[in-house]
Design a protein that fits this description.
Length: about 220
């Protein structure tokens, strides 16, 4: 398949580009070429918010949109004169209010999350715009993603505390539940979608068993 990965140089998008190159696909990446590129990809040098013809007339079997965080990000890409058969958008479980029963379910209402605030609302607006203009698109809502090259100081912080014998303060006495998902499983799930093309188009993805902060630490 001809695949476009937005980003391609940091954590999830970098892992995604490596994964699908390793599967033998023809992978292009859209980024500003400010970091080293994954071996085997075709670089499309550009900012998705300031495209000037870089994508015009190009066709891809699938767009794997890892780096869209707002409605504007989706709109700019769709209006760039690009052709495609399938579109997968990596959204977030932050589109659910934290007061919903956890683990979250796809049939629960979406809305403002007081922990994630504008991040979750902007992801939801991006989802809604994409669904309106590309009804066949797939939307994935992962929880905390982890894996090699994670650029967020999250699970590494816990290891640093353990290694350096620093105290780790447990929020809510450690009873708050967290759900994780490895980037390799995210890529495997995208591959399943592109292979099986299920009728359902919105999926929560994550480890089946949430853990409390205390269990995690």
């Amino acid at each position: 398949m001809k695949i476009l990965v937005t980003g391609g140089t940091t954590f999830v998008s970098k892992f995604t580009a490596k994964y699908f190159v390793g599967k033998g696909h023809d992978v292009s990446v859209l980024n500003r070429n400010s970091r080293s590129q994954v071996d085997g990809v075709q670089l499309i040098n550009g900012d998705r918010n300031q495209l000037s013809g870089q994508l015009y007339g190009k066709y891809f079997d699938a767009i794997l949109d890892i780096t869209a965080y707002t409605e504007e990000h989706i709109r700019n890409l769709l209006n760039a004169g690009i052709g495609f058969s399938h579109y997968i958008f990596i959204s977030s479980s932050a589109v659910y209010p934290e007061t919903n029963k956890q683990p979250f379910a796809e049939n629960q209402p979406c809305g403002y999350n007081t922990i994630w605030r504008d991040y979750g609302i902007n992801k939801l607006k991006a989802e809604n715009y994409l669904r309106e203009h590309v009804p066949s698109a797939y939307i994935l809502r992962p929880p905390y993603l982890y894996g090699i090259d994670n650029n967020l100081y999250r699970e590494v912080f816990v290891f640093d505390c353990a290694i350096n014998d620093r105290p780790f303060y447990l929020p809510q006495e450690g009873n708050m539940k967290l759900q994780f998902f490895h980037v390799s499983d995210l890529c495997r799930f995208m591959e399943i979608l592109l292979t099986q093309l299920p009728e359902h188009h919105i999926f929560n993805v994550g480890n089946t068993k949430p853990v409390t902060v205390k269990e995690w630490v």
